[in-house]
Amino acid sequence: MITNYKRSAGSLAKLLAHEGISDEQVLEVMAKTPRHLFIDDVLQHKAYQNTALPIGQGQTISQPYIVALMTQVLRQHGVHDKVLEIGTGSGYQSAILAQLFDKVYSVERIKALQWQAKRRLQQLDLYNVAMKHGDGWKGWASQAPFQGIIVTAAAKTVPQELLEQLDEGGVMIVPIGDAEQKLMLYTRCENEFKQQVIADVRFVPLVPGDII
Asked: Of 62, 90, 94, 106, which residue is the catalytic one?
């Protein structure tokens, strides 16, 4: 168990800055968030390495650089209020978002992961994250529109229902592809969507349906 994590988290934030993360508030949040709490005990010695790690159920906790990059891109495009996260997973990305945006809505298809994530967020006194158990492909239509949408699993095709839940001028960041994946940015301009490639990435697949 890691009891004094702040030096390790601070070193991770410095590494992320060296790798190109320039948003000071994103770096500050990454430096103060205990990533080890979102990882099983047996892997906690790797918590502050810049790498993705397994969290069970065939899922992973994302590489810190990708977490920071996706968060930074949202902020660069003026997102500050309502953010929809598809794929709660461990809750680590949710925790980062919760400290930088007014309200986070997070959808997870695996009930066991959702309950673990909710407990971890409560442990950190983060209560501005609403969670839904359901199919990430469908988003959370009753809470739409969203200023920003962040998808933490790779879709083979662009999830049209998620695009429709974007507010005017809103942005969605989503990995697209199968064997080869690109992190894509979609910006809503009335009923049209501009797209931009952000980076080459590797995510677990965005699977339809939900698991009790």
From this structure: 62
